Amino acid sequence: MKIVYTDALIVGGGLAGLRTAIATKDKGLETIVLSMVPVKRSHSAAAQGGMQASLGNTVMSQGDNEDVHFADTVKGSDWGCDQDVARMFVNTAPKAIRELAGWGVPWSRIGRGDREVIINSKKETITESNESHGLINSRDFGGTKKWRTCYTSDATGHTMLYAVANEALKRGVVIHDKKEAISIIHEDGKCWGVVVRDLKNGDLIAYVARGTMMATGGYGRIYKQSTNAIICKGIGVAIALETGIAQLGNMEAVQFHPTPIVPSGILLTEGCRGDGGILRDKDGYRFMPDYEPEKKELASRDVVSRRMIEHIRAGKGVDSPYGEHLWLDISILGREHIEKNLRDVQDISKTFNGIDPADEGKKGWMPVLPMQHYSMGGIRTNAKGESPTMKGLFCAGEAACWDLHGFNRLGGNSVSEAVVSGMIVGEYFANYCKETHLATHTLTIKRFLQEQSDYLDEILAYDGEYNIFDIKDEMRNIMQEDVGIFRNGEGLKEAVEVLETLLKRTKQISVGSKIRGNNPELNESYRVPKMIKLALCAAKGALERTESRGAHYREDYTKRDDANWLKRTITSWKNPEDTLPTVSYEEIDIKGMELAPAFRGYGRKGSLIENPLSGERAKEIEEIKKKLKGCDRFELQDALMPYKLPLNFKEKNERVGVGYE
Amino acid sequence: MNRQHHQDEIIEGREITLTIFRYDPNNKESKPHYQDYKIAETPGMTLYIALINILTRIDHDLSFDFVCRAGICGSCAMVVNGKPRLACKTLTSEFTDGKITLLPLPTFQHIKDLSIDTGTWMNAMSVKVESWIHSKEQVDISKLEKPIEPEVADEVFELDRCIECGICLASCSTRVMREDFLGAVGLVRTARFAIDPHDERTDDDFYELIGDDDGIFGCMSLLGCEDHCPKDLPLQTKIAYMRRKMVEVK
Predict the structure, then answer these.
(1) What does residue B104 show for φ and ψ, rounded to 5 degrees?
(2) In chain A, which among 146-175 make CB contacts under 8 A with chain B?
(3) Using CA atoms, how far apart are residues A288 and A294, in angstroms rounded to an integer?
(4) How far apart are CA A625 and CA A188, in angstroms?
């Protein structure tokens, strides 16, 4: 029996996992990070456009601060997020970016004087002050009031990930890659580690720890078309679900990004539009201003994606062998800008489509279509990042439903959340690991190891008619068809039925190679049932949620229904033999909100069913504001919704020109 | 290589042959051999699409490494018709005779078929060159960040674009002879920190890390690294930059 003991165990080596590892190691805890791939290849590296933090350095972000970032995030979430968490996040984000700057992330910096930018497809000149010279620059992004997204060209995730990974190596964090966690070890409702399969040789190993953090990313690969890396299968989230104790939140909240390139589905960053790029239809017409007069191409992602599909349905899509698409035009930004700030976009477009987007006119237009991009749902945690139902199981980053994003995440808030949650949740997790001592038994550990060993043998012994790759394709197709951007009761009902059948069918397969070692078909054979369980949580959650909120859009229930649906979907898998998840709900407390539910400011107007409590809360907020007239914004915030942060994270953030105000 | 030219030449839906190295060192019955796979080419097909096609339709036991499939993560380096390249960024249309031979990237621990272990070596390299900022300054993260000249930040970013794919090592004659040679990836990493204003290390400090034949003096300037780097990094000029600095260290 192979057992590895450590103090803090982190599953997942992306930004959230590695930043957590730094937090635990700095507290003197022995720390192991497990990763399916070398950590610097994690999907965090694929984040292109940037990281939101309200530094307010550039002239285009003057007046930005935590309050503005908070309001943008809450509106973006369509009031689905946990406002406490959003507050914790916005106050820590500027600290995170400054920490990263100190660790060498080569953030693009501001140069004093005039520079030309494209705003609403027109050239304008902006003038940067002397004081901001050399400070971190930021670009415009969707759903934000200010230019808040800090960047390193369009390779932001890459530079962040390398800096954080290197800092982890500096501290002696132990990294074991090519390792996949396939089940969670628990006893008496407490988590004590994971059973791991070594992807090099198939060995099973138990990693046992005082506390376990899941930072395993999203589950985008349950869809046929996704921008996600092929490792984003959600296995970490699925094994939490399979405990029957830990629960998942808002699995139906799935984001579709407006501009992946057709047909490969590789992302073209929102920075394309943030920097002034526009969307065009088959006639070359810029259509977004007709739908969204105020934000145009820079409404939130859920809104832009829906408007694009609406426009295609109106007969304005461009025909291609891969179906209809629209055009993304960045040629108007000029070659110099593209080759400096959007160079990976240019490289991707040239390599995979033979199109140089810097070429002027139609020649440079890139074919785009909305595709799955981000998982707002994940392992449900409290504000400290711990599962409320399983002690010792923490979760951070995209794998978590912490819940910063509600039903739609803003661009630039993902890598930002990954690092910030690594700092905040990492600190709470480290404290937990310090205070907790192992209270499990080798007998328990052995039982979990044996269970997985038996399960793998069982798979190899299956003698059925199906093959796992076909089942996976069917799952991905039905998710694409029926649990996509536009959803309806009929389609969702069918999706749940088909997925349930597919789940049963995963036991009616045959695996060609019978070896337990390095065996790609065996990998898929234990992963796909897990993926289908997540797909079922998403489809079932979407079927039951008879409203439209953020990225979840029901053609048969087109209004956001605050009267009945201001709640989080909770899914669990009570018994291993179940073929459907159990769905329940967690109320969102309107009376505790700092920002009462209202219209987002973009998207369709007049499609909101109000909750009477929203008006009451709005009134209370007004009264508190009136009473505290003359107080500074921090006192006001504290009166509206007090929140806590660990370490010095609650300190005020300094800004150029305004100090700590 | 002019892609458009090749695309014009190919007949849509032609059959292509992939000849792939097969071997599982952990399986005693496995012997190294080549296996041919014939598939129908589709427009815009990359080696990623071709290999996924083979795995899901023809041979469920073929091992290889892909993650981002977009040329940014560096996982899928392999030897394609004799040259080390990122498979995900390689279009099959480039090969006019429709014959493509794939081998695992040399100089790394072989796992199976086209799958290799790069993480162990790359992490050890990062530790060896101390691939992080060295500074005595305690950063107060609530205060304004230290200003950096925009051009300097851009220069650092340029060198920070390395994706540790290992292609420079597979292209390097010194690396074939010296297992511990840091290669372009390690040497250019030191250049990246040497020009970063946050890093307080002196030339003497860097000499301690790379001032030997496993480091800067091992490079024979054959330029294989620069010829094949998929990110077009200025490897040779930066190795030369570090060598000039190291030669001057007394």
Answers:
(1) -70, 155
(2) 152-153, 155, 158-159, 162-163, 165-167, 169-170, 175
(3) 10
(4) 47
Residue A634 exposed, middle or buried by CB count within 10 Å (0-12, 13-18, 19+): middle
**A326-329: strand order across its sheet:** A278-280, A326-329, A366-368
Q: B77: how many CB neighbours lie within 10 A of its CB?
A: 28
* pTM beyond 0.95, yes or no: yes
Distance CA A249, CA A383 (A): 13
Sorted by where each begins, the domain ranges of chain B are 3-117, 119-247
CB contact under 8 A, B153 and A101: no
Q: Measured in whole angstroms, how far is the alpha carbon of residue A291 from the centre of its chain?
A: 26
pLDDT at B186: 98
Select the residue from B105, B160, B233 to test the A interface by mutation, using most A Cβ atoms within 10 A.
Answer: B160
Q: What is the pLDDT of residues A19-37, one digit of tens each?
A: 999 999 999 999 999 999 9
Residue A389 buriedness (CB in 10 A; 0-12 / 13-18 / 19+): middle
CATH of domain B3-117: 3.10.20.30
d(CA A471, CA A204): 26
Q: Which residues of B48-72 are buried (b: 16+ CB within 10 A; e: fewer)?
A: bbbbbbbbbeebbbbbbbbbbbbbb
Model pLDDT for residues A93-144, shown as the tens digit of each residue: 999 999 999 999 999 999 999 999 999 889 999 999 999 999 999 999 999 9
Category of B99 on φ-ψ map: left (φ > 0), alpha (ψ -120 to 50) or beta: beta
Between CA A158 and CA A343 the distance in angstroms is 14
Q: Which of B132, B147, B153 sits opposite A106 (nearest CB)?
A: B153
Taking residues A299-321, report their average pLDDT.
95
- Which numeric CATH code is attached to B119-247? 1.10.1060.10
Across the range A41-57, mean pLDDT stands at 97
Quote the CA–CA distance of A600 and A79 in Å, as a whole number.
9
Query: For residue B28, what are the β-bridge partners?
Result: none
How many Å separate Cα A460 from the centre of its chain?
34
Q: What is the mean pLDDT of chain B?
A: 94
- At B174, list the tokens: 């010194």
Distance CA B51, CA A581 (A): 35
Could you please report the per-residue DSSP string of A332-401?
GG-HHHHHHHSHHHHHHHHHHH---TTSSGGGG-EEE--EEEEE--EEE--TTSB-SSSBTEEE-GGGEE
- pLDDT at A88 > cutoff 90: yes
Q: Do domains B3-117 and B119-247 have the same CATH topology?
A: no
- Taking the CA of residue A102 and the nearest CA in chain B, the distance in Å comes to 7
**ipTM beyond 0.85?**
yes
Could you give the count of Cα atoms lying within 13 Å of A251 in the half-sphere of its Cβ? 32
Per-position DSSP letters for B130-179, written without gaps between them: T-S--------TTSPPPP--HHHHHHHHHHHT----SHHHHT-HHHHH-T
pLDDT of the residue at A566: 97
pLDDT at residue A405 in the model: 98
